[in-house]
Sequence to fold (270 residues):
Amino acid sequence: MLYSKILFGCSSIFFGLIFGSFLNVVIYRLPKNKSVVKPRSFCPKCNKKISWNENIPIYSWIKLKGKCSNCDKKISIKYPLTELATGILFFLSFNAIPKDTFFENFALNLFFSWVFILILLPISIIDYEFLWIPNSIILVGFLFGLAASIFSAILNNQNLFLNIFESLISGILGFLIIILIMKFGEIIFKKPSMGLGDAKLAGMIGFWIGFPGVIISIWLSFIISGLFVIFGLTIKSIKKGQLIPFGPFLSIAGFLIWLYGDDIFFKIIF
Ligand SMILES: [Zn+2]
Fold:
C-alpha cells in the first residue's frame, strides 16, 4: 500500500513536470497569437530549435545554467518554475481528500483534477503577466467541465439532465456575481476593477464546482486577494492604485474548493 502510494506520488510529479513543459508553450505562444501545436520549441532570441535533451523539464534548465546553448541568452526562471508548480499541483491533487467526492472513481477524480490544473494554471499566469484571460482556454474549460458533469452523473447514477442544469446555473451565477461586483466597483471607484474575463472565469469555475461552491469560491478569492494586496503593500512590491489581476485568485479559490470540498471553507470564512 505504501509502495503504491509512493509510486503514484512520484508519477504524479513526473506527469506534472511533462504537462508543465507543455503549459510553457501555451503561456508563451497564446498571447502572441501563435499556434501551440507547431512548430517545435525554439529559442525566442536566436530561433534555434530546442532538441529533446535540452527540453527535459527543470533538469535542462539547470544543466544549461539558465542559458540558451546557442546564443547564451538567458532563459527565464519562470519556465522551470511553471513546470515545478504543475508537478506540485498534480501531486497535491493525488493526495487530496475531497469531502464531497465528485467521483467515486479515484482515477477519474485525479484525471479531472489534472485537467482543471491545466486549465487554471495557464489562465492565472497569462492574466498575471498580461492582465488578459484568453477565451480559448475558458472555452476548453467549459467543455471539460461539461464532460466532468456528464461522467459524474453517469457514474454516480444521478440524473444527467439535472446535473448539467446545476452546473449551468452555478456557472451563470458565478458570471453574474462578478458582473454585479464589477458594476458596483465602477460606480464606487469610478474605474474598472475587474474585467469581463474575470466574469467568464468565475462562470467556468462555477460550472466545475457547482453550488454553493461557486459563491464560496468568489468570497474566498476576495479574501485571498485582500491578504495578497495588504502583504504586497507592506513589503512595497505593489504600488497604490496598481492594477491587480483577479484571475489567479479566482483560480486558487476555485481549485481549493474543487480539491477539499466547500464545507471546510464555508466554516472558515463564515
Ligand atoms: Zn538562443
The first helix runs from residue 2 to 29. Residues 43, 45-46, 48, 68, 70-71, 73 surround zinc ion (CB under 6 Å). The mean pLDDT is 89. The chain has two domains: 1-95, 97-270.
